[in-house]
Amino acid sequence: MLLDLRTAGRRYFAPRSHIDLLGPAPLPGARDARGRPLLVRDLGPLLDPLDHTVPGRRQALTVTLRRRSVALLVQRVESLAAHTGIQPLAPLLARRLRAPWVLGAVAVDDGPVLILDLRRIATDLALGATV
Question: Phi/psi at 43 (nearest 5 deg)?
Fold first, then answer.
């Protein structure tokens, strides 16, 4: 099952299995279920520097890693049924990405939508990787 994620200016899909907790954006200084500080980042600007956050209510996609939990913030989340038309990115396109955070793409009515690897994004953020 894929989730339809909306940032301020973009649309992405992500496997529901990558997300351990889905809920409202956490308050500053929030901790995860194990009492560790929660790393919170806005997903839009991570993927596109021009995708700026707009004021309003946001949703948190929390990914629990071995040593840390990461909450990725988006404007809106919607459920989708299982999608069968997932296509891997061509090697030429994959090499041009700033980071290897895309699993593939799905063709929908208004064009292709990228499928994000939220576990990889969370791991890179937890390790302090800069993109």
Answer: -70, -40
pTM for this predicted structure: 0.86
SS3 18: helix
The tens digit of pLDDT for each residue in 37-73 reads: 999 999 999 988 888 887 788 999 999 999 899 999 9
Question: Do the Cβ atoms of 60 and 69 come closer than 8 Å?
Answer: no
Residue 40 lies in a domain: yes
Structural domain boundaries enclosing 45: 2-126
Q: Report how far residue 30's alpha carbon sits from residue 36's, in angstroms, rounded to the nearest whole number.
A: 9
- How far is Cα 63 from Cα 61, in angstroms, rounded to an integer? 7
Total domain count, the chain:
1
Half-sphere exposure of 34 toward its Cβ, with a 13 Å CA cutoff? 9
Domain assignment present for 131:
no
